[in-house]
Specification:
283 residues; alpha/beta; 6-stranded mixed beta sheet; 12 helices; elongated
């Protein structure tokens, strides 16, 4: 199979895990190439995510690397399965690749935890709120670009719908609830949308009030996407130049601790609902 010109974040991650498995066992790239019956260059391409590895070859490598974590190997083998074309692929070439990577990672996540201090979570945004966000971009986006991004954002919300929705735990700061993107009416409808979503059994929303005081971290959005095993968790943070994806164990541990701290300071589910209702009533 030909090498990929631009692997997705999920494909890159599989390559990172393959390299980690190989190097942890002290296995050289040359030895791995001989073991799998490929040339040395293909091993480099597999480990960069530019070339796929079959589930069978992945299991052969894991066995010879003495990796006895069955759940981890099974999860990697599942990642190596030829994937069906995801709905987000129809946006490839029209939206930044990072936006498509977010959708793919959300699609495969077992559970999603997030903390938002200023913005509403993308998975919980109303159409008008999302439109107001994209219209505020600098430099300004053309109207067709705004429409594309809103459509993509709303389609991402599929993970919270259907017969097997993803569990979602969202921590919102009171500041995010009081921001009036799009004006008072749009802000009120957005808060009512939050309240409706919070009625779903798999969606938990909790609020950190202003009087909770200082908070840890740099104030950025943090989305923690849990994989089928902890080693395959991913953190996504927003930046001015697009999303960043982190998965080193030290990074995962840091952001797990940050999310745990936030949850510990947040109001209860019922108290959070009451605060959201109160703010909505003021608009």
């Amino acid at each position: 199979m030909a090498a990929r010109t631009s692997p997705t974040e999920r494909q890159k991650r599989l390559g990172v895990e393959v390299r980690k498995m190989r190097t942890s066992a002290g296995m050289t790239g040359e030895y791995a190439a001989g073991l799998l019956g490929v040339d040395r260059g293909k091993i480099s391409n597999i480990e960069s995510g530019a070339r796929p590895i079959s589930p069978e070859r992945l299991r052969t490598l894991a066995c010879n690397c003495d990796c006895d974590d069955e759940a981890y190997v099974d999860a990697l083998a599942e990642m190596a399965q030829p994937a069906e074309r995801g709905w987000w692929e129809k946006y490839r070439g029209t939206l930044p690749a990072g936006q498509l990577d977010i959708a793919e990672l959300e699609h495969h996540a077992v559970r999603i935890r997030s903390v938002h201090l200023i913005h509403m979570p993308g998975l919980l945004q109303s159409s008008d709120h999302a439109q107001a966000i994209f219209k505020a971009a600098l430099p300004p986006l053309p109207q067709h670009e705004v429409a594309l991004r809103v459509a993509h954002r709303l389609e991402r919300q599929r993970v919270l719908e259907g017969d097997n929705p993803t569990e979602y735990i969202g921590i919102l700061h009171e500041a995010a609830l009081r921001m009036q993107f799009g004006g008072r009416k749009v802000a009120r409808v957005q808060l009512e949308h939050l309240l409706a979503l919070a009625e779903r059994a798999h969606v938990v929303l909790r609020v950190i009030p202003f009087d909770a005081g200082s908070i840890p971290g740099a104030g950025q959005t943090v989305v923690y996407l849990e994989g089928p095993v902890p080693q395959l968790d991913t953190v996504q943070i927003d930046s001015a130049h697009g999303p960043e994806f982190l998965y080193q164990e030290a990074q995962l541990s840091k952001y797990r601790a940050q999310l745990d701290w936030m949850e510990g300071r947040a109001l209860s589910i019922e108290e959070s609902r009451t605060l959201i209702q109160d703010i909505a009533s003021q608009l």
